[in-house]
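1st attempt posting a full record on here, be nice pls
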Amino acid sequence: MDPYIITVASEKGGVGKTTLATNLAIYLKALAEDLPVTLFSFDNHFSVDKMFRIGTGSGHGTVAELFTGRRIEELTELGQNGVEFIPSNRQLSTLRDMITGDLLARTLQQSRGGGGIIIIDTRPDLDIFTQNALHVADRIIIPVKDTASLENSRYIVDFATTHGGGRKTVRILPCLVDARIHFEGPFKNALQLLRGYAINRGYRCYEGHISKSSKVESLNTNPEGRIFPVIHHARNTDVHLQFAHLARQIIVDIKDTSERRIGQLRLAEEEQHLRRDHALQQRIGDLVPICPLCSEKIVDDGAIAAVGYFWVAHHEQISGYAHDDCLASLLSQTFYPTSHPGDALRELFHETTRRDHFVLQRTQRSRNYPQQEIACYRFDPAGRLLSQRTTEDATAQQWLRHCFGGNLERVADGFIYISHCDADLPEEALYPEAERARRELFTRIETQLL
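the predicted structure (as C-alpha cells):
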C-alpha cells in the first residue's frame, strides 16, 4: 500500500507550522506504533533534525536528493520516538530552477510499500517545493492564527483544487489561539472568529485547535540546543490534549481512505504513457514510408529504420525520414558543392549539418515557369538564417515532389523543414516536446522567409 501523505502548509510565517508538523508525527506514531511515520521539511531551518536526530550522525542524505531520483528509504534515518526523518538542507533553494511541480511525486511513486504516514513541513511560500508537497498530499493542513493567515489560505486551496487532490483534501486548523482574547458580538473569541470566517469561505475545519502556550514555546530553547516534544515535556498543558485529539482524527481519516493520492498519480501517469504510445504509433502510421531521394523503405510495420534526418511539410503536415547519406549528398552536391566523398571539407560540412536546420522551398519567381527553381535556406539551432542557395537541379525537385505526394504544385507557399535526428531513436522527432519546439521554430523561420 502507498503511504498516506500529510502536507502542512501556510504562506504566512509564525503560525506554528513546524511545531504542528513535528509534534503531529510523534503523536501519530504513539497512536499507531506499527505504522512507519516519516517526516521531512523543505524549510531552511533544522528543527526536524534538532528534535529527532539520535547522536551526532550526519545521515545518508538530505531532502534535496528527493529531487534527484533517490528513493525515500535511502534517505531516512530513525529518530527519537520511533519517527523516521530525512535531514534538512539549507541550500535547497539553489535547486529551484531545476525542479518541476511533479518531481517529488515521481520519487514517492517508487517508494517502499507497506503504507505508513509521510508528513511534509513546507516553507512559508507557495514556491516550487511547496507546490510539490501539495501535489502529492492526501491531506493538507493549513494552520491559521489570525485573519491574515486565513486570507492567505485561499492560494493554497486554489492550488490544491487545480493541481492537487482537490479542495476536499484541505483542512483549516486554528493554531496559537490565545484564549485570553474575547470579543463583543456573534464571535466571542479568536477561535470562533477563525472557524466562522473559514466556514463562510467554504473551507473545512478540523474539530478543535492548538492553543498558544508559553510552556510549549519554551521547548525550543534550552542549553542542549534541542527541541523537545509536547508529548513528553508538556503533558500538563491543553496543547497535549489538543494534539492527541487531532492525531485521532487523522488516524480515522487514514483508515477511511482506501485510495492514496500517490496511487492515483501513478495510475494517471501510466494512462498518460499509454496514450502517448498510442499517439506515437498513429504518427508512425501516418509517415511517408520511404526515403524521398532513394525510395528505399524506412518505415515498416510500425518500426523506423536507422536514419539521419527527419522532414516535415510545413503546410501539409506530411512528414517522414531520409537516410543520412542521401540528404547529406543532396546538400553537399546540389546546394553546397564540395569535393568527392571522403574529402575533408565535405566531411566537415556533413558534421555541421547535424546541428543546423534546413528549409527547401520553391522560389516565387519560378512558380509560373515549367523549369522550377528550388531554394535551400540554412538556419542555426536558434532559427537564425545563415545562408540561402538556389538550384534548378532535378534531384531537389524530386525531393519536393516526393514530399508532396508527387505534385509540386501542392507546395504553394509552404516549405519542407529538415533536421538531423538520432539514428538510434528516430521516433524522438515525433514526441510532443519535439513538435512544440518545431512550431516555435517555424514561427521564427516564417518571419524571415516572408
